[in-house]
Amino acid sequence: MSDVVIRAEGVGKQYRIGTARQAYGSLRETATQAVRRALGREARAPAAQEIWALKDVSFAVKRGEVLGVIGRNGAGKSTLLKILSRITPPTDGRIDIRGRIGTLLEVGTGFHPELTGRENIFLNGAILGMTRAEIRRKFDEIVDFSGVEKFIDTPVKRYSSGMYVRLAFAVAAHLEPEILLVDEVLAVGDAEFQKKCLGKMGDVAKGGRTVIFVSHNMAAIRDLCPRAILVHEGQLAVDAASDDAISRYLTSKPGTDRSRGQESQGIALERVEFEGVERSPYGLRLIPGQPFLCRTEFSAERIPDAIWLNLEIYSAEGICLIHLRNDFDGVSIPRRQGNTTVEIAVDRLPLVPGTYAVRVRLVYSRAGNIDALDSCEYPLQIPGVRGETAKYQSYVVVDRRWKTR
Amino acid sequence: MTDAAAAETVTVIQPQSGWLPIDFRELWHYRELLYFLIVRDLKVKYKQTYIGVAWAILQPLVSTVVFTLFFGRLAKLPSDGLPYEVFALIALIPWTYFATALNYSSVSLVGNANLLSKIYFPRLLLPAGAALAALIDLAIGTAFLGAAMAFYGIAPTWRALWLLPFTGVAIATALGCGLFFASVNVKYRDVQYTIPFLTQVWMFLTPVVYPASLVPESLRWLYGLNPLVAVIEGWRWALADKPFPSAPMMVVSILVAGAMLVGGAYYFRRAEREFADVV
């Protein structure tokens, strides 16, 4: 049973910035450009910048294997998944896949707010590739799993967001393809429901199905995937046991954020260090009782007009909980060539135990361009008082005293 | 494990370039999704409306009244010996189908942008579903038309079965144009603003308010370049007792409809590889 079901060879995807990202110039702009070119006013359209979102990626996955895919935002993970799931074709290379493919890039794809829960189960199931007979067979199970049976004939626009997600995930969880491609879909819903879903994914993995799982949740990657690949700046950096891949991910130099689209202007994050945390296989782990400190060093080849440093902490669901920026606090960062170090110290992070993400983001402006940025992101674990069993429905903690009489 | 016996599906993912054939086997495989997309469009369309499917009748009915008043009574346009209101209504039922189907299929890709960027399925299903969903309105409209004709004492004959092939011509035209416009609309949203205006002009190039017999005999084949000519004249011929319209005009018209469908489909296949990145 060691046959290869997915073989990717030299896969690459090129985007032309200005045609892909800021895609739609109106017809008029295109027409004006064409006329200008015809009149010789403009020798050529401004050279479109081409970037390789993915370049020369090769790997193989065997039947029944669960492969994790990790990497920073913009590293090319999602592009890889979109190519594997045939949403967008590659520019280069070739992939051979043996078996029926199911894709879960988000839960509830195609859900229509006006339709009832029942109608959406059938619609969403069909979109995910299930047959009508299959959906009918699993219908009761899906409704049970979602826990919304009372509202199954209510339009989903009247659902709470929690109910919506549970129903959507319930459909997805009952998808039974031979190969399952999953993006960060577990980052939704409350903690309890997430665990239920992780359990279901675990079953999937044990059921001998081949799974490719993209996540920022290092704990989930470690639990579910024996092997992981690390995608870094569009290239496959590591293909190893997931513990090794994760530790390489956590110790790697901060990557440049591809969403900036401009040349780097010679300014880049060089080093990001933290104090008050320890490195664990799950990412950074806060040491209770110690102040949290972030030390950032960046280099500038030329003097920027202005520079801002952002420190942001996100919940597992991607909600920005804390956003610190130097100018919010009346601090200015010296504008100069060469290296600058900035430290931010926080006495206590008022967050409940759980998994978060810390993002350091450098924004600078030169000659009026403010959109250029460089950033890096780390998973952050805040340990509970006794293990990780507490179920919080909130993010923030306050100082408190309990008394019982 | 239940699929172990079934032949294993092999998918090859490669860069795409140039013209691609239409994969009918895959379309057949996804037929249930097409069904659900049509059901969704229909259900959503009439949810939270007060008069519901009566909308399917109201639109051609109001146009008939207005046209009868202005073109029939005031301008006294000829109507091939039929009462003008019947003459107009027979044309407006398939015309309304065409305009609706064209409009819906043209915006179907942009309206389903989240599907395009999140999951794979043959993209052709979206405009096709939109064009087919509008057939329900056509069926309701046709039933109403039957009642109206009975009221005027015009009984249909077996010839009425010819409505089906002529409706096919309307579907081919709407879908062919819809596929083209939908692909262009992904890149240039200008298209969706052009369509209401385009259909308005198109209607006056089609024998809706006047009979095709008003066009000089020698120019009929040229007039036939508009495929809707065959649809409307075909419907009138199938339902009312009148001689078959000019044959060269009808043949040209039907061929153009076929060409539009094939051309639209191939253009769509060529454009679709960019949809997820651009939409």
Structure description:
- The complex is a heterodimer of chains A (405) and B (279).
- With 405 residues, chain A is an alpha/beta fold.
- Helices cover 23% and strands 34% of the residues of chain A.
- Chain A has two domains: 4-8 and 54-248, 3-Layer(aba) Sandwich (Rossmann fold), CATH 3.40.50; 254-382, Coagulation Factor XIII, Chain A, domain 1, CATH 2.70.50.60.
- Chain A has eight helices and 18 strands.
- In chain A, strand 17 (354-365) and strand 18 (373-382) form a beta hairpin.
- Residues 19-24 and 255-263 of chain A have low confidence and may be disordered.
- With 279 residues, chain B is mainly alpha-helical.
- Chain B has one domain (24-278).
- Chain B has helices at 24-29, 31-46, 55-74, 84-111, 113-118, 125-151, 163-187, 190-204, 220-223, 228-239, 247-271, 275-278; one strand at residues 10-13.
- The two termini of chain B are 38 Å apart.
- Mean pLDDT of chain B is 92; it is low at 1-6.
- The A-B interface holds A 15, 19-20, 23-24, 26-28, 30, 82-101, 103, 105-106, 109-110, 112, 114-115, 119, 122-123, 126-129, 131-132, 155, 178, 208 and B 1, 3, 8-16, 32-33, 35-37, 39-40, 43-44, 47-48, 112, 114-121, 187-190, 273, 276-279.
- Strand 4 of chain A pairs antiparallel with strand 1 (10-13) of chain B, so a sheet runs across the interface.
Element layout with pairings:
The complex is a heterodimer of chains A (405) and B (279).
Chain A: E1 4-17, H1 27-39, E2 49-62, E3 66-70, H2 77-84, E4 92-98, E5 101-104, H3 117-128, H4 132-146, H5 161-173, E6 179-182, H6 191-206, E7 210-214, H7 218-224, E8 227-232, E9 235-241, H8 242-251, E10 267-275, E11 277-280, E12 283-286, E13 292-300, E14 306-315, E15 320-325, E16 338-346, E17 354-365, E18 373-382
Parallel strand pairs in A: 3-7, 3-8, 5-6, 6-7, 12-18
Antiparallel strand pairs in A: 1-2, 1-4, 8-9, 10-13, 11-12, 13-16, 14-15, 14-17, 17-18
Helix pairs in contact in A: 3-4, 3-5, 4-5
Chain B: E1 10-13, H1 24-29, H2 31-46, H3 55-74, H4 84-111, H5 113-118, H6 125-151, H7 163-187, H8 190-204, H9 220-223, H10 228-239, H11 247-271, H12 275-278
Helix pairs in contact in B: 2-6, 3-4, 3-6, 4-6, 4-7, 4-8, 4-10, 6-7, 7-10, 7-11, 10-11
